[in-house]
Amino acid sequence: MSCCSGQPCTNVMPTSDDGIVKAVTDTYGAHAKKAGNDPEYAKAVAAAFGYSAEELLSIPAESHMGLSCGNPTATASLKEGERVVDLGSGGGIDIFLAAPKVGPTGQAIGLDGSQDMIDLARRNAAKKNLKPPHVSFVLANLEKEFPIESNAIDCIISNCVINLLPDAGKRTVFNEIYRVLKPGGRVVIDDLVARKPLPEKLKQDLNAYISCISGSILEEEYKRNLLDSGFKDVLFVDKKSDLNAYWEGGKAGGCCAGDTSDSAPLVQKPDIASDINDWLGSYQIYAIKPKNEQGEVTIPPTALKRWWDAYPTVKSTPPSLTNDEVVDMIRNPGGEKDFVVIDVRRNDHAGGHVRGSEQWPAQTLYDDLPGLFNKHKDTKKVIFYCQSSNGRGPRSAGWYQDFLDGQGEEGSGSKAYVLQGGIKGWLEKFGGQEDLVDKD
Ligand SMILES: C[S@@+](CC[C@H](N)C(=O)[O-])C[C@H]1O[C@@H](n2cnc3c(N)ncnc32)[C@H](O)[C@@H]1O
After folding, report:
1. Which of 128, 150, 188, 440 could form a disulfide with 76 if both were Cys (CB 3.0 to 4.6 A apart)?
2. In angstroms, what is the span from residue 213 Cα to ligand 1's centroid?
3. Same domain, 290 and 327
4. Does ligand 1 lie within 6 Å of residue 189's CB atom?
5. Residues 157 and 246 reside in one and the same domain
6. The predicted structure's pLDDT at residue 282
7. DSSP annotation string for 80-114
8. What residue owns the CA closest to ligand 1's atom 2?
9. 194, 289 contact by CB (below 8 A)
């Protein structure tokens, strides 16, 4: 998809919404790979849109690349313990500013449609030792259902993203925002908004669209999308920032015509004669989900529908061992480092576990992999189980095997397995046998 410096090879707008989303996220994904290449440009754009020097110093330098058009966490009034979701989180800039505000009891979740952006944001989070469930980055297409529970979120933020969604997505995204917000929850969105109808030629310019320019819509249309989704108290504030900040310093040029270096900015100067500020403005948009419209609602205990979405997808498929094979190992041990059985259940392990098994809960296992590896890198068979070994067990085994595979020669002394049937099958067969079941 990308030709020079991460820009799409063609400047023709795709005809389908899926094509537009792919062109956009592929281009941002290519740009994610160049994060950190031009810190001066990134800093200048961030400063132009309201970030303070202290804020920028407090976050990883690679978390922003000059792609923002505002600073939503500065006005979102985030409080200790709140859950905040950032739509189109990029390298994580606003999530890293939100995380200290919501504190360790709160949650900051970034959603982005580019796997490369998600990978970048997760690497940035690791630099700050920020982990799920406190800080999570999850791959999600914003035109589709969010991977978030209903009535779960206190505040939705977004920074220069909604204008990138196709027209239908610009409407449906607010239905999803409304669904996931708690009653009384709020929206603080920074976005570019058209001051007057944009020329048709510009609207058909893919580079201008990807540069957050030609997908911008009029305030009245934007407002209608919010109100149609059920929001009340919608407020648009023109921040009056100078949009020329994106291409100041002589860096811009059309695709394959301007700066093609690794530090070329993604936002390209559009082909229009007059000042860009006459056409578009950077706005901050506030809205509140009314209370009591749905009567009493239950606030879900977790925000993410699937906790494992906050971690990399498992690549390997470790083999299974039957419970008879594992019984044989327990009763006839070959040596001290022959095998270990790992129980990955967390609170649901009442009723017994495989005798001698170690507990490493699946929900935190990904972050604990270095510790598990250090302890068991010379253990030949590391056998994982959960309740039935259908979900957490194979997932944990897969993460461990992926980790081993990433260690090269050092990881070759150990191998992941799954206990077939999990503890359920084990207890059904050996429930009364003390040498095989620990009742703690
Ligand atoms: C202009 S950048 C802004 C990034 C970030 N908010 C910031 O201020 O640095 C837009 C981001 O939105 C993401 N994005 C664009 N379209 C999307 C879609 N349809 N679904 C999910 N993410 C999308 C891109 O991958 C990119 O990371």
Report:
1. 188
2. 14
3. no
4. no
5. yes
6. 97
7. TT-EEEEET-TTSHHHHHHHHHHTTTSEEEEEES-
8. 67
9. no
What pLDDT sits at residue 1? 38
Which atom in ligand 1 lies closest to the alpha carbon of residue 65? 9
Q: Show which of 310, 328, 351 is a domain's final residue.
A: 310
Write the residue with the smallest CA distance to atom 10 of ligand 1.
Answer: 161
113 Cβ inside 6 Å of ligand 1: yes
Q: Are 85 and 159 in contact, with CB atoms under 8 Å apart?
A: no
The alpha carbon of 222 and the centre of ligand 1 are apart by a number of angstroms equal to 18
Domain harbouring 120, CATH code:
3.40.50.150
Instruction: Kindly state whether residues 134 and 95 are assigned to the same domain.
Output: yes
DSSP codes, 131-159: -TTTEEEEE--TTS--SB-TT-EEEEEEE
d(CA 397, CA 417): 6
**Same domain (yes/no): 225, 368:** no
3-class DSSP assignment, residue 274 = coil
- pLDDT over threshold 90, residue 10: no
- Most informative mutation of 17, 21, 24 for ligand 1 (most atoms within 8 A of CB): 24
Two structure tokens written together for 326: 């594992």
Q: Is the CB of 23 under 6 A from ligand 1?
A: no
| Range picked from 203-207, 229-233, 282-286 for highest mean pLDDT | 282-286
20's enclosing H/E stretch is: helix 17-32
In this structure, is the dihedral angle defined by the CA atoms of residues 259, 211, 39 and 91, taken in order, positive or negative?
Answer: negative
Q: What is the pLDDT of residue 247?
A: 82
Whether 191 is in the pocket of ligand 1, judged by its Cβ within 6 Å, is no
CA–CA separation, 257 vs 284, rounded Å?
A: 33
Ligand 1 near 90 CB (within 6 A):
yes
Query: What is the pLDDT at residue 256?
Result: 32
Q: Which of 59, 58, 122 is nearest to 90 (CA)?
A: 122
Q: Give how many domains the chain has, as a whole number.
A: 2
Whether 340 and 405 map to the same domain: the answer is: yes
* Domain end residue (candidates: 286, 310, 334): 310
CA angle 175, 180, 185 (to 5 degrees): 100
Tens digit of each residue's pLDDT (9 = 90 or more) over 335-385: 667 999 999 998 766 678 999 999 999 999 999 999 999 999 999 999 999
225 with 257, same domain: the answer is yes
Residue with CA at minimum distance from ligand 1 atom 1: 67
Find the CATH number of the domain harbouring 361: 3.40.250.10
- CA-CA distance, 380 to 376, in Å (whole number)? 8
In a domain, 315, yes or no: no
